[in-house]
Amino acid sequence: MGKMVFLCDGDRCIECNACVTACKNENEVPWGINRRRVVTLNDGQPGEKSLSVACMHCSDAPCVNVCPTNVIYHTDDGVVLHNKDGCIGCGYCFYACPFGAPQYPQSGNFGSRGKMDKCTFCNGGPEETFSAAEVQKYGRNRLAEGKLPLCAEMCSTKALLAGDADEVSAIYRQRVVERGFDSGAYGLSQGLGRKA
Amino acid sequence: MRNPAASLLAAAVAVVALLGLWLSGPAAAQDVRPPAGAAASGEAARPLDPALPQAMQYPPVADQWQAINDGTRGFVNIPDKKAGRLIQTQGMEWLAWRNDELRRYGAYAIAGMLIALSGFFAVKGRIKVEGGLSGRLIQRFKPHEIIGHWLTAGSFLVLALTGLWLLFGRPLLLPVLGPDAFAVTAEIGKYMHNFGGFVFMAGLAYIFVMWVRHNLWDRYDLNWILKGGGLFAAHSHPPADKFNFGQKTVFWMVILLGGALSVTGLTLLMPFWFVDEIELMQFAQIIHAGLGIGMFALMLAHIYIGSVGMEHAANAMRSGWVDVNWARDHHSVWVDKYEAEGGEERQGPATPPAAGTAPPAHPQAAE
Prior knowledge:
The structure holds two protein chains of two kinds.
Chain A: E1 4-8, H1 18-27, E2 37-41, E3 49-53, H2 62-66, E4 72-74, E5 80-82, H3 92-96, H4 132-138, H5 150-153, E6 160-164, H6 165-179, H7 188-192
Antiparallel strand pairs in A: 1-6, 2-3, 4-5
Chain B: H1 4-30, H2 38-41, H3 65-69, H4 90-124, E1 134-139, H5 143-177, H6 179-211, H7 221-226, H8 245-269, H9 278-306, H10 315-318, E2 321-323, H11 324-330, H12 332-340, E3 345-350
Antiparallel strand pairs in B: 1-2, 1-3
C-alpha cells in the first residue's frame, strides 16, 4: 500500500505556472478556483525561489478532522478526497488547512461559498470511476488510468514530483547527493521538521 | 493546445528561455567579476565543483522555512493574492478550539443551564399569580411589539438549533441519520442559518428601537436588585415599571450578544469582505460560536420563566393582554401608570386564589 505525496523541489521550480494551467485544463476546474498555485518568494530579488503548492494530502489531515458533515476522507493510496454531495460550503476545511487548498466557487447566497473544490491528486472522487459525474464534479481520474497527476507529469524541470512517498523521497535524496546540497523541498522537510 | 507535441515544444522553449534568464540574471546583478571557475565552466564534462555555481549560492529555501511557517507571503500570478501565503499554522489551533473547547464548554453551558432550571423548578415550583386571576385584562404589549419579539425569538431559535446542528451534528446526529440524510439536513440548516441571520438582525434592530427607552436604569431597579427580584422571600414582589431589572438584563444581553453575533456572522457569511487575514476569519468563527452557545443558554432561562416557570407570563407575548393581578405582582408601577392613564380593559377568565397563597395584599408602588 503506497502513500501518495507531492514534492516541490524549491531549487528547480522556475515559476512557469504550467502545473497551474495543466491542472485547470485537465480537470476543467471551475472559474475562480486554482487547485494548484505557484508562490514566488523574494520575487524579482536575487535568490528568488518558487514553490508549487496544492493540497498536500496530509496523513493527519485537519480538513478530514474538522468537516461537520464528514465528507472528506483518505483513499487506500493516502489521497485526500471529498464528496461534494455532502459538502455544505461552511468553509471550515479552509480555516483548518495550513496550505489554503480548499476553495469555493462563489455560487451561494451573497457571493458566499458553494461546494468545496480542491486538488484530487488527479484521482477523481467518490462517483463511479470514469463516469461523467466524476469528471464533471472532480475532474479526471488519472490514477485509475495508471498515470500520475498531470501537474507533476508535465513539470518541465521536474521540480514537482508526485507518486509514492518512498519513490519520491528516493529521487529527491539522489538529487541532493548529486548536487551536494539540500534545498529543503516543499513536502519532505516540512513534514519531517528537518532543518537543512 | 490539444496537440501534445505542440504543447511540449512550447513548454520546452519557455523553459529554456526562463532557465537562461534565471541562471544569468541574478549572478550578473550580484557580481561583475567573473566567477572563480569561469574558465572551466565552458568545458562540457567538468566534474562537479565542490564550490557551487554562483547562481546557486543564494540561501536555499530550507533557510526560509521558519518564515514560511510564520506566514510569509510570496507573489502569485493568479487573481487571488491571498493565495500568496504558503502556510498558515493557526488553523491547527482553531481546529482544536472548535472541535474540543467549543464542544465541551458549549455542552457544559447548555447542560448546566438545564440542570439549574430543573433544580429551580423542583425547589421553587411554578410561580403563581397571587390572589388568582381577577378576570380584568390590561394590554401589556401591542401587536407590533409581539411581532417584534417573535421575529427575533423565532429566528434566534432557528439560528441556535441550526448552529448547534453544525457543531454537534457530526458526533451526535451523523451516526443516527446516516451520511446522506445528515448532509441534506445540514445543507438546509446552513441556508436557514444564512438567511435567518438577516431576519434576526431585523428583529434585533426593531426591538432595540421599540424597547430601549423602557430598559434604561430607573429608580426602582436598585430596590429590585437588593431584594433579588423577590426571589428569596415568599409573596415578595418589588415594584417595577414596564420592565423589571431582570428583564432589562435580558434585553441588554440580547442586544449586546446579538450585535456581536451579527458582526461576526456577517464576517463569516461574506468571507474576506470585511477582513483580510484568515486568522480573523478563524477568530470570528470561535467568537460567533462561543457567544451563540452562551446566548442560547441564557435564552433557555428566558424561555423557562416565560413559560413553565411562571403562571400567566406567556399571555403577555401571546395576546398581549394580561390579568391585572399578574401585572400587579410583577409590574406594579406600570399598572398604576396604565390605570392613571385610563387604559383600556377587557374581560378574561377568573380563577379563585390558589390554596395556601396569601390573599391579594399588594404593597402600593410608592412603598
